[in-house]
Every structure is written in structure tokens, then in C-alpha cells.
Amino acid sequence: MSRFIEVPARMLPPEALNALLETFVTRQGYDTTDTGTGMDGWVVELKQQLERHELIIAHDLELEMTEVMTLAQWRAFGRDLADDEEEGDY
């Protein structure tokens, strides 16, 4: 069984999805004044990116953590994890 699963955005309650997206905005250092509608504007934009499959929601079954990631972050994370497993760091 894989340690990570992709979670479809539609499976999350709206409040949980919004909280995840707000955390992503904060973690990425987005300027919430850019949209003219603050954090809400970014949340709307990120929901659209999820629909276009530019972002994913990944859940770590071992750590019981859920994160929003860009596809580039997801791919880099997968490579880093594979390297750790090869080295026995996992």
C-alpha cells in the first residue's frame, strides 16, 4: 500500500478545503492584496487550479497530514522520498 493518496477536492467539506487552500497561500508567501479580494480571491483561484489539475491534495497516511501541492512540488517530493527510501532514511 502506498503511503500517500491523492484526495479529490470534492471529497472535502468546503470549510476543510478552504482551510487547506489558505494554508497553501500562506506557506507559498502569496501577496493576498494581489487579487483585490484578499485571501478569498486566492482561494477561488486555487480552486480553479485544482479543477485544471495544476494542484493536488495529497494525504500522508502514516503522518495523517494533508497538503496542497503544485505538480512540481509533488514530483520533487516523490523523488526526495524515493531517495530517502534508497538510503534507508525512511
From TrEMBL:
<dbReference type="InterPro" id="IPR036685">
    <property type="entry name" value="YehU-like_sf"/>
</dbReference>
<dbReference type="InterPro" id="IPR010648">
    <property type="entry name" value="UPF0270"/>
</dbReference>
<dbReference type="Pfam" id="PF06794">
    <property type="entry name" value="UPF0270"/>
</dbReference>
<comment type="similarity">
    <text>Belongs to the UPF0270 family.</text>
</comment>
<protein>
    <submittedName>
        <fullName>YheU family protein</fullName>
    </submittedName>
</protein>
